[in-house]
Known about the structure:
The complex is a heterodimer.
Chain A: H1 2-17, H2 20-44, H3 52-77, H4 79-86, H5 90-94, H6 100-130, H7 138-168, H8 172-186, H9 199-205, H10 229-253
Chain B: E1 5-14, E2 17-27, E3 30-35, H1 42-49, E4 57-62, E5 65-66, H2 71-75, E6 77-80, H3 92-101, H4 107-120, H5 136-148, E7 154-158, H6 166-181, E8 185-190, H7 193-199, E9 202-207, E10 210-216, H8 217-225, E11 229-234, H9 238-245, E12 251-257, E13 262-267, H10 270-284, E14 290-292, H11 298-305
Parallel strand pairs in B: 3-8, 3-9, 6-7, 7-8
Antiparallel strand pairs in B: 1-2, 1-4, 4-5, 9-10, 11-13, 11-14, 12-13
Helix pairs in contact in B: 3-4, 4-5
Amino acid sequence: MKNEILRVFSFYFYLAKKSTRTRIFLLLSSAAVLMSLVIRVYRLAGNWTESGQVIFQNFLMVFFLQFLIVLLALFYGTSTVVEELENRTLPYLTARPVARAAIIIGKFLGYLTLTTILLFFSILLSYLILNLDRQFGMGDLWTIIRYSLVLWLGLAAYLSFFTFLGTWLRKPILVGLAFGFGWESVIQYFPGTTQKLSIAHYLKSLLPQYTSSSGKLGFLFIRLEPTKPVLAVIILIAIILFFLTLASLIFTYREYLFED
Amino acid sequence: MKAIIEAKNLSRWYGNVLGISEVNLEIEPGITALLGPNGAGKSTFMKIITGQLKPNLGEARIFGQKVWNNRQIFRRLGFCPEVDAFYDELNGQEFLTGLLSLYGFGKAECRKLARQALELVELQDVSSRPIRSYSRGMRQRLKVAQALAHDPEVLILDEPLSGLDPLSKRKLIRLIKDFRAEGKTVVVSSHVLPEVEAMTSEIILIHHGKILARGDIHFIRELIDTHPHMIRIKSTQYRELARALAGEDYILEISFQPEDQSVIFETHHRDRFFDRLNELLLESGLILDEITSPDDNLQAIFDYLVGR
């Protein structure tokens, strides 16, 4: 099974690299770098008094955590099966000596690797641009690694969930949009345990320095009642494994018909 | 000879629509053609025996093993689907190499096998061009190449000749026959009788999801020869042509289509008609623009065979 996963991973990583979707998301990731440049120029003009660190943190929360990783995961995750059905290429895969579960896991890993590269490239450049006015040290490296790992966990969790949606539903994009940009955002404003029914809650819990008073956009996190970091990591890993297993099982036992 | 493919009471329906019903078949090595009009159930049968669909009733076996989710079988099977679909961002070489890598071949082996397959279908010169730039015929040949690149023992080809020009058809038919000569099993579907005739004499007639008849192609030929055929000939001299053939005893009806300068002959003896037409062209020097058969599809023949 491991070898089969690696074979699928290798083929789909290559395929995804060449896809139009990846070019579009490369542009979108580059937009974060461009926005950082704009903010940097705005700051140089004296219009923004907070430090580069604080601006980066806000930027990370609003653009990366609540927008980019959700969008990346949504469009790659839901495409896992639906794209093969719409393009009618599924028989090329399902008539090969590869376990169906290996197809899902291999594609998941391929897409995760590719989106991680897009994400890390964007985070690193944005951080560097927003903090150009001071000397970099080990603390910066640790900050970048920490933020990147949190976002990577979020990316993997969303990707796993959307992969599940893609194997289960025929038109998963709309449901995915409603979940990613509706439920995930709105639920944050509810106090108590309700907000724990979202992936974003656990990601924000891993960035405890964000409180109602941190930064101009702190109001976005005003009702966060964080889960303990260790527990948040465990829950995120459990989400990844649970939905990936579910997606693999559905794909193994379900048959997929073309529209006609 | 031992059956390679077995179908027992195979039934499959899509909601209220019947795909196939109680199909019992044993297919041995060699070329077997599934012949039937569009919607007869050929593709459904092929999808079941290649593990793309599950039967609602009955079972399909290849080499004595159930097919669904059986990846040991897929290693020995090559499938060319009917749909014209590809990973268009890839080129021909990448497409084949990528699919071959799923079998666990090493990189060098994948490249070698892909090159061989591309040579077999004569696409080696365009192998580095994106698939999206391929013509319909090239895409069809590439689809066949992906089915046989890993040297399978069983080849399932769903309408492999559709979209090919006559020369490419001939070459592909030769390729399929070579495959049979190695003692392998080929199941090929078509709705065009002359194509099937060129490939094999072993045919299975399928219609409305049921196996109508099975046997040597001469059997169906005899049935068909008594069925009236329509032949439409386009020519600026269509009236002269009609006059010359009007006295032949095998011509049942002649009708004119002056708007596009053509004439339609109805005959119950196609071979005699074409023999006489050839003679006439040599004798009189008449020029023809186009010969088509308005009912040269199996639907008409099958309707005739089942007495509709």
